[in-house]
Model the fold of this input.
Amino acid sequence: MKLSDNAVKVLEKRYLEKDENGNLLEDCDGMFRRVAKAIASADAAYTDEKGLAAIEQEFYDMMANLEFLPNSPTLMNAGRPLGQLSACFVLPVEDTMEGIFESIKNAALIHKSGGGTGFSFSRLRAKGSAVNSTGGVASGPISFMKVFNAATEAVKQGGTRRGANMGILRIDHPDIMEFISCKSDNSEITNFNLSVGITEDFMKAVEHNLEYELLDPKTKEPVAKLNAKEVFDIIVEMAWKNGEPGIIFLDRLNRDNVTPKLGEIESTNPCGEQPLLPYEACNLGSINLYNMMDDSHKGLDFEKLENTVRKAVRFLDNVIEVNKYPLPEIDKMTRGTRKIGLGVMGWADTLCALGLAYNSQAAIDLADKVMSFISDIAMKASQNLAELKGVFPFYEDSIYDQKGIKVRNATTTTIAPTGTLSLIAGVSSGIEPIFAISYIRNVMDNSELVEVNPVFKGAALSGNFYSEELMKKIARVGTVKNMNEVPVQVQEIFVTAHDVLPEWHVKMQAAFQRHTDNAVSKTVNLSHDATTDDVREVFTLAYKTQCKGVTIYRDGSRDLQVLNIGKVK
Ligand code: CDP
Done:
């Protein structure tokens, strides 16, 4: 086992099984054993005892060697009474009091089990419209979002992790302007990420500087008009101010909806990487690309990668089988489409180890090559599983039926943020650039401990320029750019999120998106002095390069908000 001290700490705090007094009942190795056994058990019907033991061992090895990890709820709950294994859910919000509060209750059940929820509030009638039963007026989507937020806040205390939500409103909803600025001071709706649901019609109207119509959510009759470019500019301005809202391209999510007969995709999970139908859940898992390199670290070992993808697809498909879903509706939908989301982590570390700068065409080309390979193999693996175990139950409602391709899973690939998984594996998260090359951690006795990116440390040691002092200096400055002590070639390769120009962030996102069924979690980092024009360019580039959405964060923008609030007080 190669887990870092930090990884062990995280696992002990939240993932390992404990008794009622908080004493650990398993260690990290025991956790991987528990998970492997629970997930392999889905194969009992397809193999004998010996075969089952072999599958269990394969699953165990893949996790213990940090080659592949399933999303956090699987690590936490597999083989335990709760048994809820998915990270991503989307719940419908109907335009009735019963529907709204049903959805809040269901979200609470999901949060309790470590899952995150996404909602579209677009079906709710606009603020000020009539309420037939009482003769009163409706309070509108934003006021109900605050109720969802408060419920999440309360559940947060008792759950396995902080409840996370995605809130989406269509660009043509009458309350869209209130939605766009509802988090402008960042003290509201704190348990939500917000995204505006953008349509192709709207983007065309922006391009040609035209007005577009706001529609009554129920009748779809036009109720007002707004200038598209002005609305787009306000979204840009708000995102510039504090990173919210993001945008998602609804028509693209539905263009790739493989089961359109089952309904429309209105929302994604909290971090945006998983578009889902109402009541659908998805379990994710990520391959650690850093451990997929060949022994000499000259390139990727594609044979190893292929084997890992095949095992990971089987693993994730088994998760659906043994999963205990929190609601019967979710059980039916999720077992019906059998969506899984296999992705990657440790991408930036891999590029550094291979001597490629994140912001280079060579890195983009490799991204295309690696992800198209993963996607191809994952598809083949799902087809093989279909031969053995059958196609997904709602197959006849899918585009695969029309194409005559028999698959076990309606989707197979998703790029998750891997917030905790990457920490457990000790690599850079998802497909993000390295965040810091080194940083200083204060330890108990007030001394400072400098933590260094292991790939950089290796490069510094072999290049003979490692010193504790230099690592501290890098931590303070935040980049090795223009740092004389570091060879120029190393400066060029070890770029951090803030060294990478926004357009390269988007290009990388687009490269992975080209070969991903679902979506890609990515934050485009901008420097503190970036302008609203820079944000507009990022949004436009993401649109033009076929991304499914985009989230930006301007360095220090949220911190500044907190400071401002402090000053006012
Ligand atoms: O690394 P880990 O498996 O813990 O999660 P992630 O890849 O950072 O996030 C994947 C998904 O898990 C998110 O998009 C959410 O749907 C969900 N999540 C959540 O519900 N609550 C959190 N605090 C973090 C993630």
